[in-house]
Specification:
Largest sheet: 4 strands, antiparallel
Mean pLDDT: 93
Helix content: 25-40%
CATH architecture of the largest domain: 3-Layer(aba) Sandwich
Radius of gyration: 23 Å
Strand order of the largest sheet: 6-8-4-9
Number of helices: 6
CATH topology of the largest domain: Aminopeptidase
Number of strands: 12
CATH class of the largest domain: Alpha Beta
Structural class: alpha+beta
Low-confidence stretches: none
Number of domains: 2
Strand content: 15-25%
Order of helices and strands: HEEEEEHEEEHEEHEHEH
Length: 258
Amino acid sequence: MVAAVAQEEVGGAGTAANVEAGFLGDVIIVGEATNMEVALGHRGSTKAEVVVRGRSCHASAPERGVNALYKAVEVIERIRSELIPALPDHPLYGGTTLAATQISVKPDTPNVVPEECRFTLDCRYNPNYSVKALGEDLETIIAGMRETDPELEAEVVTLRSSREFTGFYTDPEEFREVEEVRKAATEVLGREPELKVWQFVTDGRFYSWRGLPVIGFGPGEERSAHTHQDFVRVDDYLEAIKVYAWLACTICGVDEKD
């Protein structure tokens, strides 16, 4: 079966619906970019929004207000200097990362000091961290800043999940299918592909949570994904098709003569 789904980049609603409808298999192959290596999982992912409030006034007299944008920038700088360097590492999944990705002000007009500023943080976390820990760490930073700045008014909103860890890992010791994928790729490529984990998140997590072996293999490089330089080598594209076909025959027990 082949599943082509929508909204993979914004929550995975397409795959979630397929899984709920019972559109499953014995082995799940995710064709996301692996640079022709074999990927076995990835970190969890969550978002947090910080809302900073001030007092609006006309920009010609900024001293009459409290600039929420300035306050938000100070919070971001504190996150960069104190929280990000202290995020935990993991021997399998790699480090936890945190990045500010969006910011907006209210009112959104060039001649008014904003009374509100919101910014979004993207967190990719390993099993040594959690959504709860992120919320607590952000609250601690804000509380510490309030001690020297009583005017700071900020609120943290984290996106909760029903799962403590939203990543996954397909253990080669538990699932023989990992070796089958690796063997099929070796037959086609003429070399043994490395085992790795993705840096980004995939829809494979929905299947892994059901106990299914999820294995990634595909053309393209992670570092160019979601950039203007995103590309796939034609040779890799054609080789990947051969691997998928060979793998389907192997897993389904189809003989070469068939």
